From TrEMBL, chain A:
GO terms for molecular function: transmembrane transporter activity. One of its GO terms (cellular component) is plasma membrane. The keyword Transmembrane helix applies. This is Sugar ABC transporter permease YjfF. Its main location: membrane. It is found in: Cell membrane. The gene is yjfF. It is a multi-pass membrane protein. It comes from Selenomonas ruminis. The chain crosses the membrane at residues 13-34, 46-65, 95-116, 122-143, 164-187, 218-243, 264-291, 297-318. The keyword DNA repair does not apply. Keywords: Cell membrane, Membrane, Transmembrane, Transmembrane helix.
UniProtKB/TrEMBL annotation, chain B:
It is a peripheral membrane protein. Pfam families: ABC_tran (PF00005). Residues 6-241, 256-501 form the ABC transporter domain. One of its GO terms (cellular component) is plasma membrane. One of its GO terms (molecular function) is ATP binding. Keywords: ATP-binding, Cell membrane, Membrane, Nucleotide-binding, Repeat, Translocase, Transport. It is found in: Cell membrane. The keyword Phosphoprotein does not apply. It comes from Selenomonas ruminis. The lineage of its organism: Bacteria, Bacillati, Bacillota, Negativicutes, Selenomonadales. InterPro entries: AAA+_ATPase (IPR003593), ABC_carbohydrate_import_ATPase (IPR050107), ABC_transporter-like_ATP-bd (IPR003439), ABC_transporter-like_CS (IPR017871), P-loop_NTPase (IPR027417). This is Sugar ABC transporter ATP-binding protein.
UniProtKB/TrEMBL annotation, chain D:
It is a multi-pass membrane protein. This is ABC transporter permease. GO terms for molecular function: transmembrane transporter activity. Keywords: Cell membrane, Membrane, Transmembrane, Transmembrane helix. It holds the Pfam family BPD_transp_2. The keyword NAD does not apply. It is found in: Cell membrane. CDD domains: TM_PBP1_transp_AraH_like. One of its GO terms (cellular component) is plasma membrane. The chain crosses the membrane at residues 12-30, 51-70, 76-94, 106-126, 132-149, 170-195, 215-242, 263-291. It comes from Selenomonas ruminis.
Amino acid sequence: MKNRLNQLIASKYFSFFVTVLLFAILYGAGIAMYKGFMRPQVFLNLFIDNAALIIVTVGITFTLIIAGIDLSVGAVLALVCMVLAWLLANTGLPVGVCVLLVMVMGTVFGAAQGYIISKFDLQPFIITLAGMFFCRGLTAVISQDTIQIENPTWVALASYRVDLGIGFVSIGAIVALLTIVVAAVVLGYTKFGRTVFAIGGSESSSALMGLPVFRTKVMVYAISGFCSSLGGLAYSLIMLTGYNLHGLGMEMDAIASSVIGGTLLTGGVGFIPGALVGVLIQGVILTFISFQGTLSAWWTKIVVGALLCVFIIMQAFITEQKSKLSSKSSMEDNNDPPIQPTPSGAES
Amino acid sequence: MAQALLEMRYIDKVFPGVKALSNVNFTLHAGEIHSLMGENGAGKSTLVKVLTGVYQRDGGTIVMNGKLISPKTPKEAQECGISTVYQEVNLCSNLTVAENIFIGREPKKHGFIDWKTINQRSEQLLAKLDVHIDVTKTLDNYSVALQQMIAIARAVDVDAKILILDEPTSSLNEEETKHLFKIMRQLQRQGMGIVFISHFLDQIYEICDHVTVLRNGELVGAYEISKLPRLELIAKMVGKDLSAVKDMDKFAEKSTPSEEVFLDAKDIGAVGKLREVDVTIHKGEVIGFAGLLGSGRTETAELLFGIEQIHKGSIRINGKKINLKNPMDAMKEKIGFCPEDRKRSGIIGDLSVRENIILAMQAKDGIMHHIPYEEQCKIADDCIKLLKIKVSDREQLVKNLSGGNQQKVIIARWLATQPNLLILDEPTRGIDVGTKTEIQKMAISLAKQRGMSVVFISSEMDEMVRTCTKLVVMRDRRKVAELTGEDISSDGVMKAIAGGAA
Amino acid sequence: GGEQSASSGSGSGSGGKQITMGFSQIGAESEWRTANTESIKQAAKDAGINLQFSDAQQKQENQIKAIRSFIAQGVDIIAFVPIVETGWDTVLKEAKDAKIPVIVVDRDVKVSDDSLYVAKIGTDSVKEGNNVFKWIDEYMAKEKKTPRDGGSQYNVVVLEGTVGSSVAIRRQEGFKDAMAKSANAGKYNLLASQTGEFTRQKGQEVMESFLKSYGPKIDILFAHNDDMALGAIQAIEKAGLKPGKDITIISIDGVKGMFQAMIDGKANCTVECNPLQGPLLMETAKKILAGEKVEKLVYVDEGVFPADVAAKTLPERKY
Amino acid sequence: MDMLKKFAGSSLFLPVVALLVLLVFNTIFVDGFLSIQLTEDGRLYGRLVDILNRSCSLIILALGMTFVIATSGIDISVGAVVAISAAVVCTMIGGRGDGVAQMPMALAVLAAIGVGVLCGMWNGLLVAKFKIQAVVATLILMTAGRGVAQLMTEGQIITVYYKPFEYIAGFLPGMPLPTNIFIALAMVLLVAVLMKKTSIGLFVQSVGINATAARYAGINVTLVIFLVYAFSGLCAGVSGLIESSLIRAADANNAGLNMEMDAILAVALGGTLLSGGKFYIGGSVIGAITIQTLTTTMYALGVSADQLPVVKAIAVVIICLIQSKKAQEMFDAWKARRMSKQNGKKTSVDGKVAEQA
Ligand SMILES: Nc1ncnc2c1ncn2[C@@H]1O[C@H](COP(=O)(O)OP(=O)(O)OP(=O)(O)O)[C@@H](O)[C@H]1O
Ligand SMILES: Nc1ncnc2c1ncn2[C@@H]1O[C@H](COP(=O)(O)OP(=O)(O)OP(=O)(O)O)[C@@H](O)[C@H]1O
Ligand SMILES: [Mg+2]
Ligand SMILES: [Mg+2]
């Protein structure tokens, strides 16, 4: 038993388990306190409502792992929504072509940011902040007003519901889950994915080990751009509009989710399923508040902050305990040091 | 003679303020182990980095197998067939050991990385170096020495024509070095050309065929090792004539410690770090901590300096019981500490030499008692002169110094605080022969002339035997013996360690 | 606690089943909005309706989440203040599928199918814009003001609300419309119009810039809300001009601060935009749930308050 | 000449050049940009004064942010703390229409600054003691802070009619410039003196570059980090005073909105790396002024507020490129290549000579 526990603590997925556990506690508290919280649809709604955020978080996690950051995600998402709406409203292009166009646009924009950052050795924070300004502004240039999407195919997609028996989910939610799976596989089982982690561990070492640092960095930002545009499509399926203020502040939500899920902003550490749980935790906090139903605007903010705080401190505390425990257990293991070459002098 | 495998001609490299290489030629043949020698800062690492595309050369040509090559990145160099272990371990601490060995060339199954094979093959590879560790743990779980071994494992496994090892043995013990040499010889037989950089003359004479000597970024010459006596090699490195070099090795008398006890640690231990050690340090004594890697020498030193806290036992300084909660507490008791991992816990890379030197002094004085700039300069200049630190000027960034000179800066930092006890953890690691003896002499003279106590930790038995008046022998994170006077000898230490094992 | 949940079965209300209303508010971005929220909360209490209040923190996303959560909770009726006009189709369809009636409050929505909501209660932004121009035209004639630059036209600057918001668009539209239709259209020249994002800070900053560019020319300032006007007044004072005299100032909303400014003689008029929509909302909700027919569009009463009535009206103001 | 050369090599050079370029642009395209008049009551009046006046609170925020960033941290809660401080001072003085203060203004001012420091200490505690990543730690206050401010004002905009309150960001009688410019100046000078007379700079940089090594050298890393956040909180408190005095009101929703981003941007434009280490106070100050100038320019040119970011983005990227070392190296290399192409023959001859030797 004790051994099991030690194993769990030593496992690299430990902080993920902690996050999942805390999520479960939060959800359990919801069920205990409010009737109706138990309905499966409440849980499924977390995925429907947060489809876009999940996808965007995946993208931003890539940039965080290489010790970068991408603040432009929310703005790219808004731009994608806007361009899509504009294309559907003002050109006769088929939906597929429009979707392809905006996806390419977002990806290329991400890659361009990555190129500038890597080529000129600039700070990702600043360049992507500029990217955020740029996309937001551009969105406003296209239209300051909202543009509604009336294209029947898109509208049909938006209201399509996949019945799961216990409830339903939207197409966006399914795309989000697929993104999670693909990203987890890419990071865990491909050369590219591992290079991403290596760069996060140490960019200079990666270069000295002969890894394609420049190319990988550009690709990471391209992926972030890609995810932002995919997230934009999911968002567009929820909103059915293009609007300048879509996804405002989403970058912070995404970063917070990713970090709560175990990503280190110093790079080199990140876990995609963790990022998903990070999003769900933020989602469940909001659900909580809407079930509570009496908080005024400011109390909402304070309670969200307080819950976030409790969560983060708890996480820090548990991780601290872990490092203490593991150093203790390593001493116990070392009763018999794994290797002990007989010193040459002793033989003589 | 057959066509050379590698020919570097008229290589120039200029850094702002330093001409690191000028007109250097270097030739390497297949099946040859070739050493690069020179003092700290002579330009050995720079030559390697120019070859592997880390730095862009300012002039000269590189010919490999008769073809002009010009690698712009390490990746291109690797593609040309050059595999390198750099001086400072360059691996990723967040990845597992196995991954560090295989990253960039992972075996695949169905298009995805085959983790099982990676782990298995890593274990096999490390086993050849007689390292048996859990390869699925991340690299930061292991000591510098092990990381060095892992880097070597990675480099030798790459299918390359040229293997470059920049001071791979600086933190290895004899046994580990032996394993490395075995592998090097094997690769040599396969026709690989190997560049081997080290400050250990014994090792050079044991394994190398040729040696190229650099001094101050200039080529002194290339020699066949069997035709070059040691002293002559040293003379060429330091640029003095033979007689002067002979004097250098004349060793000073050891210090004679006074009866007065400065520090007395009784049965100290820390959970997860150290089991049980007791040491008594007299004034004016040079005391050595001897033991194998991982035996707990560093941990003991860290407890004495308040970096980790003791969980049992007690520490008395000048007879008074002291609770060391952090380094500042130890500094107030006039203790100084040069850590062994200078990249991680020693230098502040982006600060200048001056700032690095006065840092501890300033920390001790407190934030409000700012040392005036002029005084800082004076202290820094004094230290640079005293320790012969090779810098272009005192405002040079420490990270741009050669490894050995960085080490000296950290020693200078602590000397500036005028401590009563100076703990030197592996101070001679990666330091050239000349300087090494200088540091040993310095330790002795500090004890003799200033009555300072010195704790000297080193993995080189010779230098411990030469400098220390008392040896604390450790094994398995506890003290197993204490040797004084006549008992201090390599054999004695080895016996003590073996005895502890029995 | 059980009382927060939709107590559909337990029937704790006086008249059998207590009504639960899910209400999604935009946020608390202004005093006006806070008054709006208070009015609705108070009215719900008075009407014995259990209000599930949710604040969207200025994000449509959050509103959609809230509405979806109301549906999941199974509330009896949903009311919401749409932050933007568009993008409600999907979630309102879900509400309709769940057979929960929806009331739109304060602002407009554009949906493909009008049956997605049952009623709309709110203010008429176009009319407010209209009233602004009408008042200006009368006032200028009454006071016999002459253009400050000595020309033949009055120069007007406008501080717009948040770009793209329906309120800002409608108010501007109403204002321009009235101007175009008026016989005196030729007397006015729209000198500059820029957004001050409905906030004091931005209102002040943009006004400063206007003053530097067109200082001596400006005759009239129309601010889309009171807060921007209050910010602008300070900028005008700093420029050494007299707000309310050198520059005629009119804005929309009717918050207390603006009345105070009018009493101090620093502003000239505010066109009311009534936030006290709670009672009407509750009344409508009850009717709908009782199966009665209701008007699709209901506007609350709104007045125009020039400076001369300010002192008398101030004590009566609730917000 | 020598001075000029020295300046060209200094860390301030590029930020200053960037600002100058912007000012020149303004002078050309904005009518009367440079004109400054003296009003009857002895006040200076003009766009330049506006820019200075409006950049004060940003300058002060950037001061605190510079230290935080130098320790390789970040403080995204400053905007919210500005709102809290504004709420505190305004609720304490009170919104009485008769212009009487409910509590002495000095007390209110001290309380506002004190609350700012408290917020900073809270952040410092989380980052330094609990070792929580700075972004996440300060995210808590960023989320909750504005709510706290609204709670204090109960969602109202509290307008202060008490006359002396205006003086903080307005003109003291007889002064040619608004008071907040003097406040900002005083803060900058204070920091400059601290930098000169104490070892704060050395300690902060050491912690930012290599915290482990700093600890081994005897620096109390935890304390340094803690103090740095507390100072950032203090700066945010002072900024809150200025922001509220500018509009004579506490607007919990909009006070300091998005200012954290601008402050970070100012620091970065000033040449400090966001990864920590070396920092440049002067650069941050100039960065803050640059940002405000950019905004004012846009208003003057009538660019709509929501399209403004496009221009801002392009300006930021250009400024970054000008400042980038790598870009400079590449430019030099390109120039060298062009030069060598021009006297291409000569080099190749040299090359041959070298081969033969
Ligand atoms: N990036 C750099 N910028 C500036 N100067 C540098 C840089 N790298 C090295 N130098 C300088 O070049 C010279 C040669 O350094 P190098 O590292 O090659 O020495 P080395 O022979 O490897 O010494 P060691 O034995 O101590 O490792 C030194 O004077 C060093 O200060
Ligand atoms: N050969 C080895 N095999 C497995 N683990 C090792 C080996 N050598 C060291 N380690 C582990 O690496 C960690 C740090 O090693 P390090 O050599 O720095 O220890 P240390 O006690 O400081 O050694 P030293 O006495 O050489 O200063 C220890 O936890 C030790 O258990
Ligand atoms: Mg070297
Ligand atoms: Mg050690």
